[in-house]
Amino acid sequence: xxxxxxxxxxxxxxxxxxxxxxxxxxxxxxxxxxxxxxxxxxxxxxxxxxxxxxxxxxxxxxxxxxxxxxxxxxxxxxxxxxxxxxxxxxxxxxxxxxxxxxxxxxxxxxxxxxxxxxxxxxxxxxxxxxxxxxxxxxxxxxxxxxxxxxxxxxxxxxxxxxxxxxxxxxxxxxxxxxxxxxxxxxxxxxxxxxxxxxxxxxxxxxxxxxxxxxxxxxxxxxxxxxxxxxxxxxxxxxxxxxxxxxxxxxxxxxxxxxxxxxxxxxxxxxxxxxxxxxxxxxxxxxxxxxxxxxxxxxxxxxxxxxxxxxxxxxxxxxxxxxxxxxxxxxxxxxxxxxxxxxx
Amino acid sequence: xxxxxxxxxxxxxxxxxxxxxxxxxxxxxxxxxxxxxxxxxxxxxxxxxxxxxxxxxxxxxxxxxxxxxxxxxxxxxxxxxxxxxxxxxxxxxxxxxxxxxxxxxxxxxxxxxxxxxxxxxxxxxxxxxxxxxxxxxxxxxxxxxxxxxxxxxxxxxxxxxxxxxxxxxxxxxxxxxxxxxxxxxxxxxxxxxxxxxxxxxxxxxxxxxxxxxxxxxxxxxxxxxxxxxxxxxxxxxxxxxxxxxxxxxxxxxxxxxxxxxxxxxxxxxxxxxxxxxxxxxxxxxxxxxxxxxxxxxxxxxxxxxxxxxx
Lengths: 343, 310
Hints:
The structure holds two protein chains of two kinds. Chain A is mostly helical. Helix content of chain A is 59%, strand content 8%. A three-stranded antiparallel beta sheet of chain A has the order 3-2-7. In chain A, strands 4-5-6 form a three-stranded antiparallel beta sheet, with no helix packed on it. In chain A, strands 1-8 form a two-stranded antiparallel ribbon. In chain A, helix 7 packs across helix 8. Chain B has two domains: 2-75, no CATH class; 89-309, Orthogonal Bundle (MetI-like fold), CATH 1.10.3720.10. Chains A and B meet through helix 6, helix 7, helix 12, helix 13 and helix 14 of A and helix 2, helix 7, helix 8, helix 11 and helix 12 of B.
């Protein structure tokens, strides 16, 4: 005997689209986790001299000790440098000459204090590495997606179970709330809640979370309506189990399939909502990178027809993430609902 | 008569009113954190003018009184005045509504027609390479937020090839409508094509279609006369749901293409924290959203024989 979840997993494994989606997602999550290891800089590191450079641009950088923070040396963009005696002489990209004492160099060998980093995807307006920002942006976008969806899940499952289990006036009240929230286009509601909460990181995922629980609540309620009459639920009543135990131990696990499907779709929607919010300047605030934030940064250059990578790279990253989620979600739906999987 | 009653039953109307009351309550609270009067006047305003502003906005009254006033004003079509310009919000909305409606309706028409045609075509050629290509493209269409599609279209079709203007309104010529309309249509188009395809395939697998074929009717005749008519029911539900959803999509498209509709007004208001305007546009959008859903429900009742028979 295998559980329904195991059966679903077996069906998913045979679905190439879903597996591709899942692998892409896992790779993205992994990259987001190990972001500091696969990026050359900190996402807020600026080289104002290297503003809006093309992909593949090679920098020339000296590291100078930072007295206020020894772990983060000062990075100086240079054209050329020379060490003579106790002094380091360098010319910055604008052609100005400078010098400082040799002991201020961060590190003992030249390999440590002189680097020529490649900006794989180029740089943005502030000379920040686009690749670095893209990867850290993935961190922010995925995190916002996960937390927002978790909030939506908690609210949706809770209200949906209460409505489906108790029915009567509890159901009436919750249905009213669902219909009220349902009356707003989701994205508009997200914007409205953002106005109420203000701009910022946590405001973003709360606004998205409390705007997107309705689908989940409806499906849980519907599932509960059909499960409630099942004999094994009647048995819990005969055993004298409390409502909470019945709901969480016996009813929810049997309603979980469609909820997982919806949560996956909602995750994709949350990523898009975050990007939309950040694009209009309401979501994640600079200098924190997020995909929407990056698209907003780059979009002024689109009309000029130059440096479109600043917009296209984060847009492509987001598209890949959302497509992967949609593929995986479609696979999940087919897996949980065998009737649709023949096609 | 029965149909009318099914659509406009007093119970349903009363419930809709209750829901609308909830909607109004939510919009009432759409205001920036902190003291709106202080926000409107800026950091350096003196206490006296802040107080005057509070009085003008009715913020000095207790909350229930404020809500009551908001609802009663609303019942008279009064959405308040902009903090920034002092102009009645209703006026701004009435000025901006035609632009939004033009964009939304033309996009939806495009999405519906093209979506059904492509969906039927994909079902017709089910599991061929063209079906796969269409469905993969539609997956891409669903996966990109509309404002990103808009930016890409501007880059490709307005900047790199100067086929269409970058941004602006149709008062300068109809070519200004093309890019925003197509951009906004992409998502519903993709969804409608996918639903049409799967609904067609569902219906084609049913017994009555097989019977019709067994009677000797040609595949083409069965496909279009029997299957298509029945397959369109879920499509209509989708179309109406998406038309409603499109209104929110319009907001971002308007921003990207500098299209002077309700969305652009909202974003300008958000930038200046002009909350009466935000409240007004959000409320009107929600009302249109609800109205569209009610109408869609009615249309669905009218055309669905199963519902009609009850």
